[in-house]
């Protein structure tokens, strides 16, 4: 059967941008930037983008384009170890979508509650109490939270409807899910900037603090942010580019994806911090006091800021809907790209029917995600996210750049790219991919592992306050099982391989 193809180049770029621009851009980037040196954070951010993000993105596009298969099948061209790497990346994406979908579930819930600004007065109590019904610790699951469960079903149905017919339906959906959030964030940013105190928010977001650059954590934060937000190191970009026509451009597509992705991150920062500036001014606090990390920012602090806006009930609802529709449309194409990466990997290796594989992955994904829809689910989400993100992805990116780029002969990679692309890469690309990137990424990886272990040992990291047993299960065992599954999958014989060995 001939391979599915993107309808045209624009659709491919939109799908790649859709995968990249997601929740990571909307709430992680602004906060990470603000607390890691503000404007000065842009230095490590761009160093990470240029030395790791773009080279790995181009490399993943090359791998998918050249070998025309999901990550494991493509990387199997470099032997069993290559295929293990491909499965590892794939299973990491699968693990991520099982909790990413739960965050999307909260977004669905908040869309509903935006009509009444139901969190008004106690946004923290509303999120942790009424929505999550959070228990006292990870070992107390406490049954399902019904609102989360309903949101979760809606999320998986949306994922199914989008990808049931492969890249063709994806192509129709990404036109909306990429353009709309950008428009909404732009409107939120512009209206946010008119508010009193907005500039204090923006100052907090972007005022450079160069002294932070000597702290290694700032650098690991930048690399982590680039990998996650650009969706590289997950095999998803390999799967997506495997549906490209053999004659498609690579460099230009990669640059467009990377630029658009960073653009969405900056824009989200303006939307969020202008409003938080207003909130700080109207409650007599500082922006630093009101802003928090991750989940709390999007589901507690920002909603609270909305409930304080001087626009009346209808205006607040419009603002809230704008924000949550932006999150929904940003997140959904990232979520289904993670499923696509997994089902492409499985159907390519085992020669399974694509549609049935997708349904299978969605069903299993839904069942696993139920863990996080329990009342203790947030704890598990937090732990799994921390370890898969901190180590899993950097490891894949590092090996891709160190080993795969070498096996493909760095110079040949460049020639391959230049043959099909409008923008020609010079010798600098060989030096970057061959030397600079692996060295820098290697250092970052070692330092990330070192700081994380030291933090846990010295208890200077709040993760240390989780029961050790939960950290071992959600961190170490989860990573080991992912790795073990990757090794096992390599030894499953595919139909083609069986036929070949029978012939021989
Ligand atoms: N890049 C997405 C975000 O920033 O939210 C998350 C993501 C999607 C990561 C797809 C990895 C991936 F393969």
Automatic annotation (TrEMBL):
Keyword Transmembrane listed:
yes
Q: Which topology term describes how it sits in the membrane? A: Multi-pass membrane protein
Alphabetically, which GO biological process terms does the record hold? sodium ion transmembrane transport
Q: What is its main location?
A: membrane
Q: Does the keyword Transmembrane helix apply?
A: yes
Q: Which domain of life is it from?
A: Bacteria
Membrane-spanning parts: 42-63, 84-108, 141-161, 173-198, 218-243, 255-281, 318-339, 359-381, 387-407, 428-450, 470-492
GO CC, any one term: plasma membrane
Q: Name one Pfam family in it.
A: SNF
According to its UniProt record, where is this protein located?
A: Membrane
What keywords does the record list, in alphabetical order? Membrane, Transmembrane, Transmembrane helix, Transport
Protein name per UniProt:
Neurotransmitter:Na+ symporter, NSS family
